[in-house]
Amino acid sequence: MSLLRLENVEKYYGSRSSLTKAVNDISFSVEKGEFTAIMGASGSGKTTLLNCISTIDRVTAGHIFLEDTDITSLKGKELNRFRRDKLGFIFQDFNLMDTLTAYENIALALSIQKRSAKETDKAVKAVAEQLGITDVLEKYPYQMSGGQKQRVASARAIVTEPKLVLADEPTGALDSKSAKLLLERFNYLNHEHGATIIMVTHDSFTASYASRVLFIKDGKLFNEINRGGDSRKQFFDKIIDVVTLLGGDVSDAL
Question: What's the predicted TM-score (pTM) here?
Protein backbone atom coordinates (compact mmCIF):
# COMPACT_ATOMS: atom_id res chain seq x y z
CA MET A 1 0.00 0.00 0.00
CA SER A 2 1.37 3.43 -0.97
CA LEU A 3 1.99 5.75 1.96
CA LEU A 4 3.26 8.60 -0.22
CA ARG A 5 2.37 9.41 -3.82
CA LEU A 6 3.78 12.17 -6.03
CA GLU A 7 1.90 13.04 -9.22
CA ASN A 8 3.59 15.24 -11.86
CA VAL A 9 5.29 17.43 -9.27
CA GLU A 10 7.02 20.57 -10.56
CA LYS A 11 8.87 23.33 -8.73
CA TYR A 12 10.05 26.42 -10.61
CA TYR A 13 12.10 29.37 -9.41
CA GLY A 14 12.63 32.77 -10.96
CA SER A 15 10.66 34.84 -13.46
CA ARG A 16 9.31 33.91 -16.87
CA SER A 17 12.40 35.33 -18.56
CA SER A 18 14.82 33.25 -16.44
CA LEU A 19 12.95 30.19 -15.20
CA THR A 20 14.73 27.40 -13.32
CA LYS A 21 12.92 24.05 -13.21
CA ALA A 22 14.32 22.63 -9.97
CA VAL A 23 11.82 19.73 -10.05
CA ASN A 24 10.47 18.83 -13.46
CA ASP A 25 7.41 16.56 -13.69
CA ILE A 26 8.35 13.90 -11.13
CA SER A 27 6.00 11.06 -10.19
CA PHE A 28 6.64 8.11 -7.87
CA SER A 29 5.19 6.25 -4.88
CA VAL A 30 6.69 5.11 -1.58
CA GLU A 31 5.24 2.06 0.12
CA LYS A 32 4.54 1.93 3.85
CA GLY A 33 7.66 0.68 5.64
CA GLU A 34 9.98 1.39 2.72
CA PHE A 35 13.46 2.93 3.07
CA THR A 36 14.04 5.06 -0.05
CA ALA A 37 17.13 7.07 -0.90
CA ILE A 38 17.14 9.96 -3.38
CA MET A 39 20.48 10.61 -5.09
CA GLY A 40 21.75 13.22 -7.51
CA ALA A 41 24.56 15.67 -8.06
CA SER A 42 24.58 19.06 -6.36
CA GLY A 43 21.89 21.20 -7.98
CA SER A 44 19.98 18.18 -9.36
CA GLY A 45 16.82 19.08 -7.45
CA LYS A 46 16.91 16.32 -4.83
CA THR A 47 16.77 18.65 -1.79
CA THR A 48 14.07 20.79 -3.43
CA LEU A 49 12.06 17.61 -3.98
CA LEU A 50 12.44 16.67 -0.30
CA ASN A 51 11.42 20.21 0.69
CA CYS A 52 8.25 19.84 -1.39
CA ILE A 53 7.41 16.53 0.31
CA SER A 54 8.06 18.11 3.72
CA THR A 55 5.89 21.15 2.80
CA ILE A 56 8.84 23.51 3.44
CA ASP A 57 8.47 24.45 -0.25
CA ARG A 58 5.17 24.72 -2.11
CA VAL A 59 4.95 22.88 -5.42
CA THR A 60 4.44 24.97 -8.58
CA ALA A 61 2.32 22.19 -10.13
CA GLY A 62 1.27 18.63 -9.38
CA HIS A 63 0.08 16.89 -6.22
CA ILE A 64 1.61 15.04 -3.26
CA PHE A 65 -0.55 12.65 -1.26
CA LEU A 66 0.26 11.19 2.15
CA GLU A 67 -2.21 8.34 2.50
CA ASP A 68 -5.39 10.02 1.21
CA THR A 69 -4.49 13.61 2.09
CA ASP A 70 -3.39 15.97 -0.67
CA ILE A 71 -0.71 17.81 1.30
CA THR A 72 -0.22 20.39 -1.46
CA SER A 73 -3.62 21.85 -0.59
CA LEU A 74 -3.04 22.19 3.17
CA LYS A 75 -2.80 25.67 4.71
CA GLY A 76 -2.55 27.36 8.09
CA LYS A 77 -3.45 25.23 11.11
CA GLU A 78 -4.07 22.15 8.97
CA LEU A 79 -0.54 22.38 7.58
CA ASN A 80 0.98 22.89 11.03
CA ARG A 81 -0.95 19.91 12.39
CA PHE A 82 0.22 17.76 9.46
CA ARG A 83 3.88 18.64 10.05
CA ARG A 84 3.56 18.11 13.80
CA ASP A 85 1.72 14.78 13.71
CA LYS A 86 2.76 13.06 10.47
CA LEU A 87 6.37 14.04 9.73
CA GLY A 88 9.77 13.59 11.35
CA PHE A 89 12.73 15.67 10.12
CA ILE A 90 16.45 14.88 10.32
CA PHE A 91 18.78 17.61 9.07
CA GLN A 92 22.50 17.54 8.23
CA ASP A 93 23.28 20.28 10.77
CA PHE A 94 21.21 18.60 13.56
CA ASN A 95 19.09 21.72 14.40
CA LEU A 96 19.20 20.99 18.12
CA MET A 97 18.35 23.68 20.69
CA ASP A 98 21.65 24.67 22.34
CA THR A 99 20.00 25.65 25.64
CA LEU A 100 18.24 22.28 26.07
CA THR A 101 19.67 18.93 27.11
CA ALA A 102 19.39 15.92 24.79
CA TYR A 103 16.42 14.71 26.86
CA GLU A 104 14.67 18.09 26.54
CA ASN A 105 15.39 18.32 22.80
CA ILE A 106 13.76 14.94 22.23
CA ALA A 107 10.87 15.66 24.62
CA LEU A 108 10.10 18.95 22.87
CA ALA A 109 8.39 17.18 19.97
CA LEU A 110 6.07 15.39 22.42
CA SER A 111 5.32 18.48 24.50
CA ILE A 112 4.18 20.26 21.32
CA GLN A 113 1.71 17.38 20.92
CA LYS A 114 0.62 17.97 24.54
CA ARG A 115 1.59 14.47 25.71
CA SER A 116 1.63 13.84 29.46
CA ALA A 117 4.90 14.01 31.41
CA LYS A 118 4.73 10.28 32.19
CA GLU A 119 4.10 9.33 28.55
CA THR A 120 6.87 11.69 27.39
CA ASP A 121 9.40 10.26 29.83
CA LYS A 122 8.65 6.69 28.77
CA ALA A 123 8.88 7.53 25.05
CA VAL A 124 12.12 9.53 25.35
CA LYS A 125 13.88 6.80 27.34
CA ALA A 126 12.70 4.08 24.95
CA VAL A 127 13.92 5.87 21.82
CA ALA A 128 17.20 6.83 23.51
CA GLU A 129 17.85 3.16 24.26
CA GLN A 130 17.06 2.19 20.64
CA LEU A 131 19.56 4.74 19.32
CA GLY A 132 22.23 4.12 21.96
CA ILE A 133 22.18 7.62 23.49
CA THR A 134 20.92 6.95 27.03
CA ASP A 135 24.26 8.13 28.41
CA VAL A 136 23.98 11.60 26.82
CA LEU A 137 20.38 12.44 27.79
CA GLU A 138 21.50 14.96 30.43
CA LYS A 139 24.17 16.55 28.23
CA TYR A 140 23.84 19.74 26.20
CA PRO A 141 24.69 19.76 22.44
CA TYR A 142 28.11 21.40 23.02
CA GLN A 143 29.05 18.42 25.23
CA MET A 144 28.28 15.84 22.51
CA SER A 145 30.13 14.49 19.48
CA GLY A 146 28.71 14.96 15.99
CA GLY A 147 27.49 11.37 15.92
CA GLN A 148 25.74 11.75 19.27
CA LYS A 149 24.07 14.99 18.17
CA GLN A 150 22.81 13.35 14.97
CA ARG A 151 21.38 10.41 16.92
CA VAL A 152 19.64 12.83 19.31
CA ALA A 153 18.21 14.64 16.27
CA SER A 154 17.08 11.27 14.89
CA ALA A 155 15.47 10.39 18.23
CA ARG A 156 13.58 13.70 18.18
CA ALA A 157 12.35 12.93 14.65
CA ILE A 158 11.00 9.46 15.43
CA VAL A 159 9.83 9.79 19.06
CA THR A 160 6.36 10.88 17.91
CA GLU A 161 6.14 7.79 15.66
CA PRO A 162 5.49 9.85 12.51
CA LYS A 163 4.08 8.34 9.33
CA LEU A 164 7.13 9.50 7.40
CA VAL A 165 10.72 10.30 8.38
CA LEU A 166 12.55 12.71 6.04
CA ALA A 167 16.35 12.88 6.24
CA ASP A 168 18.41 15.47 4.34
CA GLU A 169 22.07 14.38 4.03
CA PRO A 170 21.93 12.90 7.58
CA THR A 171 25.51 11.59 7.44
CA GLY A 172 27.01 14.68 5.76
CA ALA A 173 28.59 16.09 8.93
CA LEU A 174 29.64 12.76 10.44
CA ASP A 175 32.85 10.76 10.39
CA SER A 176 32.66 7.31 8.76
CA LYS A 177 32.22 5.40 12.04
CA SER A 178 29.38 7.65 13.26
CA ALA A 179 27.76 7.56 9.81
CA LYS A 180 27.78 3.75 9.75
CA LEU A 181 26.31 3.59 13.25
CA LEU A 182 23.52 6.04 12.34
CA LEU A 183 22.67 4.14 9.14
CA GLU A 184 22.50 0.85 11.05
CA ARG A 185 20.04 2.53 13.45
CA PHE A 186 17.99 3.69 10.45
CA ASN A 187 17.87 0.09 9.28
CA TYR A 188 16.79 -1.01 12.76
CA LEU A 189 13.96 1.55 12.79
CA ASN A 190 12.95 0.56 9.28
CA HIS A 191 12.99 -3.22 9.83
CA GLU A 192 11.99 -3.50 13.50
CA HIS A 193 9.57 -0.57 13.77
CA GLY A 194 8.30 -0.31 10.19
CA ALA A 195 9.43 3.33 9.90
CA THR A 196 9.03 4.75 6.40
CA ILE A 197 12.16 6.74 5.56
CA ILE A 198 13.04 9.01 2.64
CA MET A 199 16.68 10.06 2.69
CA VAL A 200 18.42 12.52 0.36
CA THR A 201 22.13 11.83 -0.09
CA HIS A 202 24.94 12.32 -2.60
CA ASP A 203 26.90 9.46 -1.04
CA SER A 204 26.72 5.94 -2.53
CA PHE A 205 27.74 4.20 0.71
CA THR A 206 24.91 5.95 2.59
CA ALA A 207 22.39 5.14 -0.17
CA SER A 208 23.35 1.44 -0.09
CA TYR A 209 21.53 1.07 3.26
CA ALA A 210 18.18 1.86 1.57
CA SER A 211 15.92 -0.71 -0.11
CA ARG A 212 15.44 1.50 -3.19
CA VAL A 213 17.34 4.39 -4.75
CA LEU A 214 15.82 7.06 -6.99
CA PHE A 215 18.27 9.07 -9.10
CA ILE A 216 17.47 12.69 -10.00
CA LYS A 217 19.19 14.53 -12.85
CA ASP A 218 18.38 18.09 -13.93
CA GLY A 219 15.13 18.03 -11.95
CA LYS A 220 13.89 14.81 -13.56
CA LEU A 221 13.71 11.19 -12.41
CA PHE A 222 16.66 9.60 -14.24
CA ASN A 223 16.73 6.04 -12.93
CA GLU A 224 15.57 3.77 -10.13
CA ILE A 225 17.07 0.61 -8.66
CA ASN A 226 15.77 -1.80 -6.02
CA ARG A 227 17.96 -3.78 -3.66
CA GLY A 228 15.80 -6.90 -3.70
CA GLY A 229 17.83 -9.89 -2.50
CA ASP A 230 21.20 -8.21 -3.08
CA SER A 231 23.74 -7.84 -0.31
CA ARG A 232 24.59 -4.28 0.65
CA LYS A 233 27.92 -4.62 -1.19
CA GLN A 234 26.17 -5.79 -4.39
CA PHE A 235 23.66 -2.94 -4.12
CA PHE A 236 26.49 -0.46 -3.55
CA ASP A 237 28.17 -1.66 -6.77
CA LYS A 238 24.91 -1.14 -8.70
CA ILE A 239 24.57 2.37 -7.26
CA ILE A 240 28.13 3.18 -8.38
CA ASP A 241 27.23 2.02 -11.91
CA VAL A 242 24.31 4.47 -12.07
CA VAL A 243 26.37 7.28 -10.50
CA THR A 244 28.88 6.75 -13.32
CA LEU A 245 26.05 6.93 -15.88
CA LEU A 246 24.88 10.15 -14.27
CA GLY A 247 28.29 11.63 -14.96
CA GLY A 248 29.22 11.80 -11.29
CA ASP A 249 32.71 11.44 -9.95
CA VAL A 250 32.95 7.90 -8.56
CA SER A 251 35.82 8.89 -6.28
CA ASP A 252 33.43 11.36 -4.65
CA ALA A 253 30.82 8.64 -4.26
CA LEU A 254 33.29 6.33 -2.54
Answer: 0.88
